[in-house]
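User: Hi! Is it possible to get a structure for several chains at once, not just one? Here's what I have:
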Amino acid sequence: MQQVKAVVAKAKGEPVELVTINVPDPGPGEAVVKIQACGVCHTDLHYREGGINDEFPFLLGHEAAGIVEAVGDDVTSVAPGDFVILNWRAVCGDCRACNRGEPQYCFATFNATQKMTLEDGTELSPALGIGAFAEKTLVAAGQCTKVDPEARPAAVGLLGCGVMAGIGAAINTGAATRGNSVAVIGCGGVGVAAVAGAALSGASPVIAVDIDAKKLEAATKLGATHTINSSEVDPIEEIKRICGETYAGAEGADVVIEAVGRPETWKQAFYARDLAGTVVLVGVPTPDMSIPEIPLIDVFGRGGSLKSSWYGDCLPSRDFPMLVDLYQQGRLDLDAFVTEEIGIDDIEAAFDKMHGGDVLRSVVIL
Ligand code: APR
Ligand code: ZN
Ligand code: ZN
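Assistant: Yes, the chains can be modeled jointly so their relative placement is included. Here is the combined structure:
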């Protein structure tokens, strides 16, 4: 066991605190990782506000990169000294999805078995089973994906959550490729990453939609060919018009990605889609929301598919090293997601900045 500094949310709605925690030595299947960088995500704030569950105290932070310090006796996938990105879907290898060769959908993902605790022994709930606003954290070895050690931790650590969700919504779930048109509704961190993923895939046009002009600027930097401010114009008509310029007669985009998580924007995505196109829902709705009223004949008549994207349907061991390589080659601008680097005691300030809309990601450097 060792003691390290970490950021904990002790009670609903209370400011987070920098405290000392106990990190057990890794047991079978586990690894202790020395964190170098960890992004501040909406989900961390959501935990603090009690919006995920009531299992306080939470050890926050989950978009991280670092160096493996120690592993359990049986661990062979990573070794001390490896530079890794942490993921929150370690695949089991033996569930229905894994057995049919679709481990990206694993239905039995897992975390470390042992618990990290406060100094008084109170068990911590690590955010998304990671807990990386900490000098060191304990995870399942399968949550560690080895990548190019030359890469910048603050940038590639973001692949551990929102950026992977967005890129994966475009390239994995939406299967965007050259010859396709893509529209992304909602250009926060996730949506802008979907724009970057669509651009990377060769799709064109890549249309970014948001109600905030600042978000549309960020989307343009990351590869959007067109932007639509949907507080000013009807995004459905505008997406149809833009796609029609490239593909005569197009009734929308081949792939429309919903990155807000609301019924009305999902309905826009549904109707902004070309025949036989794909809607990808990557925004996370709240439990009170329902599918909007849509005539069933429209579902049938338009064909195609209506999909959801879990964590960008990523397979960390396949996707993280590939995306880090593209970043290192200058083909994927992960640096553009890092708006500021902050200290571990600046997380409350970073939460405040989330509401302003100027920050894609604040990244804690350790
Ligand atoms: N139409 C278009 N864009 C909208 C609308 C709307 N009606 N309402 C909000 N937006 C935009 C916001 O302006 C913002 O740019 O959606 C974006 C949401 O971005 P963030 O709040 O930064 O959220 P982000 O981290 O990108 O996550 C988006 O994906 O992972 C999920 O839980 C997450 O549901 C959330 C979604
Ligand atoms: Zn996140
Ligand atoms: Zn599985």
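The chain has a mean pLDDT of 97. The first helix runs from residue 42 to 48.

User: Great, thank you!
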